[in-house]
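Q: Convert this sequence to structure tokens.
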Amino acid sequence: MEAVEVGLLMMCICFAGALVYSEGSPLRHLSLSLAAKSFLMGGMVAVSTFLIIRSRFGRRSGAHLNPAITLAYLWLDRIHRWDAVSYMIAQFAGGLVGVFLAYQMLGHHLSAPPVRYVVTLPGDYGGAVAFLAEFLLSASVMVVILFATNHRSLTRFSPLLVALITVFYYVLCSSISGFSVNPARTFSSAFFAWIWQGIWIYFAAPSVGMLAAAAIYIRSMGPRSVYCAKLFHDLSSICPFPCHFEELMTNAGGLAESRERK
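A:
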């Protein structure tokens, strides 16, 4: 399921990239600005991300879609280590298959410049700034995920919040680091484009950023403040993780009842 989800995400990214940036795109006559193109692509990827997280597969697997997220949850002890390894392998494999299928449908619209398989590269400000941007945005994504999924009033909105921050980092980082925050996403594009410039940035920065965010969250909220590794927990789907989500719902419900009595 996780492989299928990442494959679908990469197909959506490839289709969005070809539509927005390809020389043969029907949108080329609109003369869109760089900011408008980034916003449009970010919006399409955000909608895709939202739908994948809310899908039956997403609700079942947890819809990590990102090895850095899986790594952070492994550090938080919310996924078993062999499950984490399996998730990461599935994410990379799914990403590769997704780009391959997109190429079969799009052909040179995906492979030719300026799209080039939607490869992510350090931007105009160099590798150091690209690393910092990826680190900060990855940390922000993880903070949003942890805060939303571990507060009863926000859990149902977690897919929407993830989608909104997706638009934000697409718009912010178009000329800084490309659109990544995800090692599997960058690797899948780089493999087919065979462009490896700055690849270490897109492995290291998201992983370190999300681990740092997890550490800060735990230090601020307490060691028992992460209840599950799902990005959207609906209680009706089987959970594959060491899960305490019902504890969150029970505690929150008990607290609400206590306040009503007072």
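The two ends are 46 Å apart (CA to CA).
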